[in-house]
Every structure is written in structure tokens, then in C-alpha cells.
Write the C-alpha cells for this entry.
Amino acid sequence: MGSEDKYKIAADKIKSAKRLLVIGHINPDGDAIASVNTVALIAQSFNVPVDAFCMEKKNETYSFLPFTDKIHPSFVGSFSDYSAVVVVDCGALSRTGFKDAIEEELKKPISTRPFFIEFDHHPQVHAWADLEIRQPELSATCELLYRFCKSQKIEFSRDLADSILTGILTDTGNFLYPNTSSETISIASKMMEFGARFAKISALIKNNQDLLTIKLWGLALENLRFNSRYGFAFSVLTRDDLKTAMMASGHQEAVAQGNFSKILHSDLFGDISGFLSNISGAKAVMLLRQDAPGKIKGSLRTASPEIDISLLAKKLGGGGHAKSSGFELAGDLERTDEGWKLV
Ligand SMILES: [Mn+2]
């Protein structure tokens, strides 16, 4: 099924819903909050009542988007209250923080439960939704939602434009990361024509990085090495580094449980590698992190138009796109006097 057909089904399901539930990911970032806002605004424009939650939502950075304050930090209702559920920006189903309950729901006959729609720009982990709208080549879920709105002739109010621009600016680091395409910038420019407040939103994103993010960036910068002969930059985050950053930012509980992945999702590391790819003279950049004992994850980025970094990712058993790819290795990162080794 092509994108246009999927957009049409999603729009019909949203329009005809008696009540709609929207779910963003646990510990939501700007794209997750803005994507929930965007879908909520679309539903409201069809006069569909809408509820939303992002587990562990905390900061009110995005309160200027009209629906943000109505997004619950936990799920207070029941799936039987809804005829459709839209899940945005989650990557894997587990990132809803509600995997088991959703899987239970999906076992029921489709006529007796809500219809599940997924909008996402992360690579697929596994297919689970009744309707999956996934475009991993896009910078942000909000960029995907823009395409949806345009195709379904949904009117861009200033609030909707603000919302879409917020997701795009968050996930591109204010257009600094290589996931920014000419199309991304052209959408942002259209949003400004509809009244989106670029200066306000970009300043807000720049000034509201949380402590965990800043600590991780600090450690990644400290560990940064640059080979000027090959124009290759790399950095490493060992298990100890991740632990240091989490301890310093109030995540003692997750550290004690050994559950790092609950807090440290791949978008955080994607942002770091995206930023590192801007180093002067760097043709490519690699960030390695100790994802779990015995498992290392690597991300590769290039801002150079003539390099296809996915070729290197494939050699390492991974994959991705020309500007942004990743891979996994078995092993542990160990700090040595000269640097790090893989054991
Ligand atoms: Mn996103």
C-alpha cells in the first residue's frame, strides 16, 4: 500500500473516531510532545474528543503548544473508551511504556477494540500496528505528520504550524544534524508562512536541554578523538560514562535496577553523533556506546555529500541511510591508557 492510501485510511479512522487516544514515547522529547500535539489538533479540527499520554512526561518546556498541558504523564483511562489509538514517534512498541497492555488489546478481534495507527520515523523494530505509517528517511515524526496533513488537505493553523516546526527543530538540532534535507527546510519555511514562531521555538530548544543530555554530550566531547589524515572523528561512551551521566542527573533508580535503556534511548545518541558530524574537517563520525553488557551500539554520521556512510555500516553488520547509519557489535568497551579497546 502506498503512503497516500495509508494517509487516507488514517484520516478516515481519526475523523470517524468517537474518541481518540494519542500516545507518545516515555520520557518524551520535543518531537514526541509536538507529534502528540499535532495529532490532537487534527482530531480537534474534526470535532473528535481526544486524550493523550506520554509516560513520565515531566517538563513543561513545550507548554506554548496548546495541547501539551493536557498530555497525561500516565494512562488513566481504558482502551475500551476509544475507537482509535494513534502512537507517535515511539520506535519500538516498548517505548510507549505500555507494551504488554497494547499487545493484550491487539489479541482481541478488531471489531471489539480500538484501531491502532502508528506514525514514526525510526527504523522498524517489529510490525505491530493495524496501520503502520513509517518513513525512516524523514528527520522527525512531525515531518511525516506534515506530509499527512498536506495530503489530506488539513488546514495549517498557527498552532499546527508551531507544533510541526517544534518537532522538526528538535530532531534536527535546529537544522544542525545531517538528517536535515532540503525538504525539511522547505517544510519549516512553509510553517513560518502559516505563522510558526521560528525564533522562539529554536531558542527554547537550544536553552532547554536536560541535565542528562548535557552530561552525555560533555562525556562524548571529552572522549572525542579525531584522525585528521582520514577526516574521521569518533567518540566512545562506556558503561561507566553512561552511569556517571545518569547518576549526575537524578536517575539513580534506573542505575540501581541496571535498566539503562529505560532512560537512554537511541535518539539521545543520534543527536550527539549528528552534532559531532559538524566538526571542521570531519568527513565522518562514529559514536560507540556500551548499550548493555556484551553489546555495543554504534552510530555513524556524515555531513559530506559525496560519502554514503551506510556502506561502512553494512560492513559492520548494520545499515541505514547515506547520511545516518548504525550497527551493533558483540563485546565490551574497556578504557585503556591510550584510549579504548573492544573486548
Ligand atoms: Mn522523533
